[in-house]
Design a protein that fits this description.
Elements (H helix, E strand, L loop, with lengths): L1 H6 L23 E2 L5 E3 L8 E3 L2 E2 L4 H8 L2 H4 L13 H48 L7 H7 L4 H18 L2 H31 L6 H18 L1 H5 L3 H35 L4
Parallel strand pairs: 1-4
Antiparallel strand pairs: 2-3
Helix pairs in contact: 4-6, 4-7, 4-10, 7-8, 8-10
């Protein structure tokens, strides 16, 4: 009783002469959502407290133990989420990431082909400069002499590179690379986070280690490489080289992460059930 009154911040009554309360006592505490007043009267009577319905305000101090309850910290891994904790959902992450690894290599190929379009034009321009500097004016009918002579190796090289560049332009590699990078960024970030969420659903915790750290680094590299696109579009060669370097590092981390990912897949088969 004293503890209840202390919690409700109601003054304690004076000591009663009798250690027991009669059955006719109207002592009643009823919690309610309506505001009420508490009247303290007739302390000398056995029915000394008359309480109308109370409005009890539970403060942070009262609710804090609920949030700190160790049994409620990890609600996962106990079957509460049903199929979300099963093997089917757990296997989505390795399957998607395996596909994204192949797609990363493909996006790199598209980017390299688009870069080849630009570098080929630079090579052609340099060869044309060399050709112009090697032309010597001769007396007489220069055009007839030129027609009688076969094309020079320099001229043949220019024609070959020009034809290769035309074929690459037909491939529309610039747009394909941009679209592939956008898809890779969206699905990669989504599934990287989704993999961690799925692990928590199944086990109630995460497991810091090489696979988790490498996955986080890959996600960051995806975002950093995408952030370099605006200066790349303006012709910043430093941004282009850094973009390539970040993606090469990304692929290497992906390859290094495969063995640890395979170990996790084996544990999924060991500790989970269908579906």
């Amino acid at each position: 009783m004293v503890a209840t009154l202390a919690f409700l911040q109601i003054p304690s009554p004076p000591p009663s002469k009798s250690s027991s309360v009669s059955q006719n006592s109207d002592l009643l505490v009823v919690p309610s959502t309506t505001k009420s007043a508490v009247s303290l009267s007739n302390f000398n009577n056995k029915s000394w407290l008359s309480v109308s319905p109370l409005h009890v305000h539970v403060g942070p101090a009262a609710t804090l133990p609920f949030f700190l309850n160790p049994n409620d910290v990890a609600l996962a891994a106990g079957g509460e989420f049903g199929i979300l904790e099963g093997r089917s959902l757990a296997l989505i992450h390795p399957l998607v990431m395996g596909g994204l690894f192949v797609y990363t290599v493909y996006a790199g190929y598209l980017g390299w082909q688009w870069r080849r379009v630009r570098t080929l034009q630079n090579e052609i321009n340099e060869l044309k400069k060399q050709q112009d500097s090697s032309v010597v004016a001769v007396a007489g009918d220069a055009s007839a002499a030129a027609a009688a002579q076969p094309s020079s190796p320099l001229q043949l090289k220019i024609q070959q590179l020009s034809q290769e560049r035309k074929e690459l332009i037909k491939g529309n590699y610039k747009e394909k690379h941009f679209n592939a990078g956008s898809i890779l960024l969206a699905f990669g970030v989504f599934e990287s986070i989704g993999g961690g969420v799925n692990t928590y659903l199944r086990t109630g915790k995460l497991f810091p280690g090489p696979h988790l750290y490498a996955g986080a680094a890959i996600t960051v590299l995806w975002a950093a490489a995408a952030a370099l696109v605006p200066p790349m579009q303006k012709g910043n060669e430093t941004a282009r080289n850094l973009h390539i370097a970040l993606n090469v590092l990304n692929v290497l981390l992906f390859i290094w992460q495969i063995p640890t990912g395979w170990d996790i897949v084996l544990k999924v088969f060991e500790f989970t059930k269908w579906p």
